[in-house]
Fold each of these.
Amino acid sequence: AFPNGYQDYHDFAELTSALQRAADDHPGLAALSTIGTSVEGRNLWLMSITRAPAGSPEVLFTCQQHAREHLTREMCLRIVNRFTDGYGSDPAVTRLVDSRIIRVIPSVNPDGAEYDHATGSFRGWRKNRQGQGTDLNRNWGHQWGCCGGSSSSPSSDTYRGTGAFSAIETQRVRNYVASRVVGGEQRITAHIDFHTYSELILWPYGYTYSDTGPGLSAQDAAAFRALGTQMAQTNGYTPQQSSDLYITDGSINDWMWAAHGIYSYTFEMYPRSGGLNGFYPIDDVIGRETARNDAAVDLLLSYADCVPRVIGASC
Ligand SMILES: CC(C)C[C@H](NS(N)(=O)=O)C(=O)O
Ligand SMILES: [Zn+2]
């Protein structure tokens, strides 16, 4: 359990129960599976939610690459609960579940998350629990370690690991995404990786300041920006290219786009600012700050059949 003032946050056992309950309560709509285990043997849960025909566009939501960003796990749980409980009653939810395949990984880094609160007070832990810890969001395989956007020092909070995908958890997600290539086509078309904090919507590339690059054309950039801007209008976050914040190399967004052509965003959630305490908003804000992203999630899902439609292009 979490410390006082934070008890509504789900620890790993509570997360597992909540996911199992959602799947049990919604057979034929929600299915719980695992994409493998973490370094310390915890399941990396995957909840799939759909009533759509096989072959429908798939959208992936990943949460908690960074351990201390506990609000993101609650964001992924919000997506699970909204698209299961709301099916058949909420028209927007029903329309999307009938036409899309929704995939949710509520915690990419369950070991780091447990370690962060295990003592009853927060450690400010970010990385996974492999050796001195790897920053999972610097361990992905596109332009890994290229550009000063990560550290080679194992003690650093942005340690990139010993090589691309040296972390068990990034390997599991990589392998899962690769498994969604069916008949030579990647079925996942769009993705959000949830982080805290700063209230931003970010898109590739992170490894370069340039707004285009190898594998990312001016039209691609225009589509990313247009959809990012539309999503930001619904939640009040600031939309910008990832590198406008700072250069990162080996990030999930760059790999999802470059390796699989997935329109991949990072959402930095609430609060807008706050030092180390910014990672630990009291549990009173969970409902408001997760529901704040409902409309953006619906926008991404609605464009998932052809994201370039957002700038009037066809697929
Ligand atoms: C997605 C990138 C550009 C920002 C992110 N910030 S965070 N969530 O670690 O504070 C990070 O450094 O990985
Ligand atoms: Zn983060």
Amino acid sequence: MRHFTNVHDLGDLKAAVKEALEVKSNRFAYKHLGQDKTLMMIFFNSSLRTRLSTQKAAMNLGMNVIVLDVNQGAWKLETERGVVMDGDKPEHLLEAIPVMGCYCDVIGVRSFARFESKSDDYEEKILNQFIRYSGRPVFSMEAATRHPLQSFADLITIEEHKKTEHPKVVLTWAPHPKALPQAVPNSFAEWINQTDYEFVITHPEGYELAPQFVGNAHVEYDQRRAFEGADFIYAKNWAAYADPHYGQVISTDRAWTVDSEKMALTNNAFFMHCLPVRRNMIVSDDVIESPQSLVIPEAANREISAQVVLKRILESL
Ligand SMILES: CCC[C@H](NC(C)=O)C(=O)O
Ligand SMILES: NC(=O)OP(=O)(O)O
């Protein structure tokens, strides 16, 4: 595998999950793969889980790791070609990217949607420049439209905990005071649509995700009806995608907060969230603290999803 940016890069998902569970049970068995190889992790945005789990995965594989927070310590980067650089940005991405590629063997990039241009975001303008100009294998640590390392960890977690072969999985919007990217819900939908689960997406009108990600999922505007009989509840906030409200918060209705009363409508469902989560906006304290909450094992599986991705990239070098 050269690059990892979406579900299709992993090929057969059942095989990928099987490999992940093997790695999970013997995670230090592959140190030879990463010997004398360097991972460079580049962050345009904040991170806790991705930063720590991906570094841990690289160390499990014997890799050296360099972490760069672009907006803290590096030069502010111009990303637009053709701009006269007489402002506050002393360096262009088109030099910085190949330079960074000189110092490593594999590059991970986090670059969220900027909500300035839907086309720039949905064409993955920043991530694709790293793929085009770094000369190295590149994987997404959450880009503008997807978060594949998270979605792979989510799938591993569901496969580890499902009680039926074809569980009902519900992706529910929940309120948040800030305009958050569509990357996590897009990616979760893209991955779950590749499974044979029953998949329902529920959100207020106006929060429809891009059709390419919704796929064959059933969209239900009545959250309570969506929760009926569910086996997994995956909560996440996202800003509006549809024009003219792209990137905007059009609701902070806390009637959509996931609480025990709503969870009682489900088939004793597990609760999932990628974290970080705003308690009592997205989910009530008692639900995220309940025995049905998988948020911690879900976060732990980020080390495993990253290790499988890095392992496959190293095997292809
Ligand atoms: C993993 C989630 C990262 C980011 N969350 C925030 C709070 O910016 C998001 O919603 O995409
Ligand atoms: N879920 C996730 O990617 O968390 P961070 O944003 O903390 O990396």
